[in-house]
Design goal:
two-stranded antiparallel ribbon; 11 helices; about 15% strand
Length: about 350
């Protein structure tokens, strides 16, 4: 038997049960098909979720897995606040000192308003939104074989429209939810000693992310915002200018999550609202585009999952260790730019 919308009684009951569980646990109630059972999307690999979050009025979704950050999820996440300690996760805008990929470095000009009769100052700044702590929007990196961005946006259309821009995140109230720190670097040093160089193409496998979570005693929930600490920011903080230039501007190689099928399926099965880390690209860079397992293509394009890069997780790591907890309330207020491709995160972790 079905209701007026064509749902069976079992499906209706499952939906109600899922909503109840969400209100109790804080996990998003959105239901996802198994990876291999997702409907095929022409021109895209198996595992694409385009259309899943589209509105009933036919409007195409532009925020992807941020839809998982429902009011119930945010209310439950707010219960992470107990001590009131708060830590901003943005690196200073002058970092990275030597941006790669030909990107211009940060510049600030202080403007003296004395000629106008005021003892006052303005300032003007230039930033490339990909040259420091950042969010990648859903129009930053396309599925390279098809040239398509999240939910069917073509590269040609992306260059002349605001579709999939970061303003969509701002207009829904920013990014707010439960953050979890996967302090892989601390786990690795505890188990193995000296870690790999952050300016090498060391791949962090999903099995080690899972082991780090167990080591910390953290169980991820659907709709969490997962941050991975790999050691890149720590390396940059203590490197000399010569080492920084060699490691960032002259050598486009960086540590990150392994780009393979196991990582893709692990990420899909956890259904994070967003992911991020302290390294250049979240995934090991450069990615093996020819294999089809570039995580930028999967996260940004196939699922609409924002990627945070080069976040300063050093103070957060210390606080998590001190408090013996790796979950916290997380807020992020990106720059409200129509059609924005990237933005400093304006992210704060609150304990």
């Amino acid at each position: 038997m079905t209701d007026a919308k064509g749902k069976s009684k079992i499906e209706v009951a499952q939906g109600r049960l899922s909503s109840l569980v969400s209100s109790i646990t804080g996990a998003s109630s959105q239901q996802f098909p198994h990876f291999d059972a997702l409907p095929k999307v022409e021109g895209q690999p198996q595992g694409c979720i385009w259309g899943l979050f589209d509105k009933t009025d036919g409007k195409r979704d532009e925020i992807g897995t941020l839809n998982l950050l429902t009011s119930d999820v945010v209310r439950q996440a707010s219960k992470e606040i107990s001590t009131g300690e708060h830590i901003q996760l943005d690196w200073s805008l002058d970092n990275v000192q030597f941006p790669g990929f030909g990107r211009k470095e940060f510049d600030q000009k202080v403007v003296d308003l004395a000629p106008l009769g005021f003892k006052a100052l303005d300032d003007e700044i230039y930033i490339n939104t990909q040259s420091g702590s950042q969010w990648d929007s859903l129009k930053h990196f396309a599925h390279q074989p098809s040239g398509m961005y999240y939910n069917g946006l073509s590269h040609e259309e992306a260059t002349k429209s605001i579709t999939n821009g970061i303003h969509n995140w701002c207009e829904r109230g920013g990014i707010v939810g439960r953050g979890i720190l996967v302090d892989w670097l601390r786990w690795y040093e505890h188990k193995h000693g000296n870690p790999p160089s952050p300016v090498s193409r060391h791949e962090i496998p999903a099995t080690e992310l899972e082991e780090t979570l167990r080591y910390q005693g953290v169980t991820p929930r659907q709709g969490d915002i997962m941050l991975v600490r790999s050691g890149y920011v720590r390396w940059h903080n203590f490197a000399s200018p010569e080492e920084r230039k060699k490691g960032t501007q002259e050598n486009s190689v960086a540590i990150g999550v392994q780009n393979n099928e196991a990582s893709v399926r692990w990420l899909y099965d956890h259904h994070f609202a967003a992911v991020g880390g302290d390294t250049v690209a979240f995934e090991a860079w450069p990615p093996p585009l020819e294999t089809g397992w570039c995580l930028h293509e999967w996260l940004l394009v196939q699922w609409g999952t924002p990627i945070g890069e080069m976040w300063d997780l050093e103070k957060l790591s210390v606080a998590c260790e001190k408090n013996n907890r790796w979950t916290f309330f997380l807020t992020s207020a990106p720059l409200h730019v129509k059609g924005g491709v990237g933005s400093p995160p304006g992210a704060i972790a609150i304990f």
